[in-house]
Amino acid sequence: GVAGAICAISRDGGFRGACCSNRLLLFYYLTILVECALLLYAAILCFVFVNKAAEYLAEYGDSILALAANEGLTLTELEAVLQNNSNSAGAVCLAAMLLHLLCAHCSATVLGYRYTSQRTVLATSLLGGCLGVALLTISALPETQEVGVKHGDLPELLIGTGVAALVFSAVGVAAALTQRPLLLAGHGVAK
User: Fold this and answer.
1) pLDDT per residue as tens digits for the range 35-70
2) Residues 6+ apart with CB under 8 A from 80
3) Closest among 187, 168, 160 to 128, alpha carbons compared
4) 74 φ, ψ to 5°?
5) How many CB atoms lie within 10 A of CB 121?
6) Contacts of 156 (CB under 8 A, 6+ apart)
7) What are phi and psi of 112, to 5 degrees?
8) Distance between CA atoms of 15 and 72, rounded to whole angstroms?
9) Which residues make Cβ contacts (< 8 Å) with residue 166, sequence separation at least 6?
10) C-alpha gyration radius of the chain
11) pLDDT for 136-169, tens place per residue?
């Protein structure tokens, strides 16, 4: 949040470095979006762990109890502590994600929605193109040909996914650069 505020102040206040503050604020915006995705993933893991805590304790109970013996906890007390802490951690992750989304909204407002959306589509499309190239490279490796069973479908699956990522990436780059509504709508539906 502090980095975003400094970028916005330098942009509007005319401080040194104002020439690149739009880029810095956009970088901050994109970083916030990645952090939101990671926080959502962490929250999902916490909530899934709550459901699996009893299973983990049954499987690894002896090892965990040996560690918890210092605290004087029984297996049922330990299970309750794990479930409470997991729920709390998941809630904190969701709250942090919502705060990050508010920060992203504020930075998009400062930058302008058109500028932000154009650059965001361009950045995600370029990353999608890199992913497509990586998938095509992985599919060409000899080790990939031998994964699982002989003559498996993994290389074809990787090739198909890589080509699709490159096509969607090309549409996204074209949409971001030309700002044509039809291309933007097609890219939005494809993603």
Assistant:
1) 999 999 988 888 887 777 667 767 776 676 676 666
2) none
3) 168
4) -90, 175
5) 22
6) 139
7) 105, 135
8) 58
9) 129, 132, 133, 136
10) 23
11) 888 888 777 666 556 667 778 888 899 999 998 8
Q: Among 153, 155, 152, which residue's Cα sits nearest to residue 138? A: 155
Judge whether 30 and 51 are in contact, CB under 8 Å: no
**HEC states along the chain?**
CHHHHHHHHHHHHCCCCHHHHHHHHHHHHHHHHHHHHHHHHHHHHHHHHHHHHHHHHHHHHHHHHHHHHHHCCCHHHHHHHHHHHHHHHHHHHHHHHHHHHHHHHHHHHHHCHHHHHHHHHHHHHHHHHHHHHHHHHHHHCHHHHCCCCCCCCHHHHHHHHHHHHHHHHHHHHHHHHHCCHHHHHHHHHHC
Higher pLDDT, 59 or 131: 131
Q: Looking at this protein, which amino acid is placed at residue 161? A: T
Q: Round to whole Å and give the CA distance between 103 and 97.
A: 10
* Residue position matching structure tokens 């805590």: 53
- Quick one: angle between helices 113-140 and 21-68, nearest 10? 60
- Which two three-digit tokens encode residue 131? 């992913």
Which sign does the torsion angle of CA 39, 40, 43, 49 carry?
negative
